Amino acid sequence: MGSSHHLLVFLMFLHYAVGFTYNCVKILPDSSSSIVVEVGKNFTATCHLLEGCAYTSDDIEWRLGNLSIAKQSYHRINETAVSVTINISSDMSDWLKCTAPKESLSYKPRSIYGIFLRAGYPPLKPKNLSCIAVQEDKDISPNLNCSWDPGSRNPLIDTTYTVYANVLGTVLTHKADCKQHLARFCIVNLETFPIHMVLKVWVEVKNALGSERSELQNDSSYFAKPNPPLNVQVQVKFPTSLVVTWKHPIDRTILKLSYAIRYRKAASDVWIEVRVPESFTRGYIESFRLQSLEPYTQYVVQMRCIGESNSSYWSNWSPSVTERTTEAKPASAPDLWRIIRPTSNSRNVTLIWKAPVKANGKIRFYNLSINQNNEKFESHNITADNLSQMYSMELPAGKMASIEITAYNSAGESPKATLSIPRSDKELPGVKDMSWSVRDEKLQVKWTAVLPLPHPLKLSEYLLEWVKIPQSVHQKELPAGWQRVPKNVTVTTLNAGLEKFKRYNISVYPIYKYQPGHVWHFQPGRPVTRPAYVQQGPPKEGPTVTVTKSKKNSAELTWEETPLDSHQGFIIHYTIFYAIGNTKQWKSETVGPNVHSYVLTDLASETDYVVYVMASTEAGSVKGTDCTFKTMKYGDGEVEVIVVVVCLSFLFLTVFIIMICLRKREVIKKLLWPQVPDPSDSSIAHWSPDFPIKADLPKEDVSVVEVDVFDGKSLCEEDKGVLPLKKDKYLSEEHSSGIGGSSCMSSPRHSVSDSDEGDSGQTTSSTVQYSTVLGSGYKGQTPSHQPPAFARSESTQPLLDCEEHPDHLNESQSRSSYFRRGRELEPGVLAPECDGGSLTFCPVQEEEPSPVAEEPPASALCYMPQKSGYRPQ
């Protein structure tokens, strides 16, 4: 520790040990500085009461820092001494104090004494001591760099490291003090590096708890580290060897060296090291030949050197030198394979090949020979180009072909590679139980061999082929990759950089060989193919769903399979999610990976739905686009049923109405066309008493009966008194007609018999029926011998002035009364009031017509027209 720390400890010691006038206690062992104690061991201190002290041993108390020590650690020696034993831990660097408080003597100052304890560890022995003197220019440096391992334990107390070096046989020892805490290295200066002498080096470590030492002794060349060989070069003279040359980095009088050469292929990380024989070193030779190399291969070469006397320090490696051996003719045949695509009437064969593994040079071209059924022979020289190492041809299904290919470089030709393509119906058997798995992000393929083999075939090897599935259905297959494995292997890993999330077709072919002559022929068997992924992921995109048919309670969905390059794995299932409108209460249905249509059922009618399809692989899922649709209001056949029911109902109703109309046609005719008399058809407007009735009057559909109303004999007795009035009335009615028909006759009026009852002065606009005696046939018809009939006429024509004011009528001569013929006739009834010999025409009353009363006298007949009319036929 520094001087400041010692000063602090000294002042604290004075404070506790000297600072009190009445202090009467003391601790043994005692020190003016801190007392170093070893961690993990017990430490015992004794507190003594000085002579004349008023305290006893029972008043002594031990404290470590501010904490009291348990009484169980105390040991009472006598009346004036008490010891304490504590186990030292790494955190016990503090004051150990002894106090003697006596409450009965509280008027005296309190006695206290303390010592400072420092916990620590003894030093550890340095390990792995090594010292190096590096080459500087043409000599070895005098600075000796030594390093060691001090251990992982912190001593907690001051510890010093010192390095010593001594050349045996001399008294001079070189020393170097290491100032670092837990020092790991130090440099000792030897002033001059000893050549061909024994050097002893040691390191010493000390602290208050002990010391340790490590040493190293060896020839001085053991400590020397030379520089790498100089001017290393490589010369090319032969296809299988390289000559390496160099220069010595230091003079042999200072340090004798041994050399090592290492080399590797430029495409490899594996080094091969060769030690230069000692005979080369003794002869001071500066070259060496590397042999058994591969032709036309690039090599990387380096050198290093070391002291000849088993020095422990090699020089660094020299800078790399790269050189290529010369060419030799190819030592292996090209790797020939084929891809067969059947067509309608033939086979498209694509021949592909790889350069020989031992090409021993740059391949210039290939010679390809094709023999079809020993009938057609072709030979092609194809320039070696990575883009054109394939050849396509057409091979009929019923023909076989034998293919040979040879590679050429500048030194010569390679062995031949042969391949046979049999007829389509002559395929050889394939392997069984082929499967694959993923191991360390590579595909591992496993299969079972075919046993027994067909005679005379022999199994030569297996070929594994992988073909990337096209990016789209319109893209052709890419050329295949392949590798061969020995015939005794049935499990292998594909040594190919297969892309993640891409589908490959993995095929296993057994390759058979047979020898019909002196040359072996090779023919592949039937392949077994499985799709595979080296790593799967969730699909890139989901399917697009469309609704092809929507019904009342169901909807048919269809979706197309997404492109293979967007699958990124095997589709394990599709999940259909659908919900009503914006409710987002989703329902789902799961279908298999080969299903691309589905019918949703139990849907609500006339409802908007949202639907989408989610595609899933074992690595994840992705949803497709949303599609909305609306279910129909009516189901299949419901509209047709409704239309049929309505049409049948309408038809039945129409038929029913027609039948009713046919049965009630007269009633309907009266309701639709009421029988209204037409005054213009009446002949009474053209009648005059001065003119006789025309002979063709019956043709006008009018019958007239002449009655002498002034004949007193023909009148009823009760009507004689009112005769003048009636006479004037009828005359007035006759001359007031001016519209073609008798308005007076068409006006409502009452009979003379009614005037006796005081009703003759009444006028009304209601319909009054009039009767006319038909004297001749209807429209030229011959009247039958039936009783006289009467015609009835209904009219709503208003009364004329002569009818409304009868007092102004002038008397006129007696005239016969003519009445318009009605369109319907009914037999009249006798009026009971009449008893004269003339006919009296009585207006029809509104009451129901009465039946025939008692028969009147023969000299007088009275007819009452009925309310209902009769149309003559």
UniProtKB/TrEMBL annotation:
Ranges of residues in domain Fibronectin type-III: 228-328, 333-427, 539-634
Signal peptide range: 1-19
InterPro entries in alphabetical order: FN3_dom (IPR003961), FN3_sf (IPR036116), Ig-like_dom_sf (IPR036179), Ig-like_fold (IPR013783), IgC2-like_lig-bd (IPR010457), Type1_Cytokine_Rcpt_Type2 (IPR052672)
Protein's cellular compartments: Membrane
Keyword Calcium: no
GO cellular component terms given for this protein: plasma membrane
Cross-referenced PROSITE patterns: FN3
Name of the protein this chain belongs to: Interleukin 6 cytokine family signal transduce
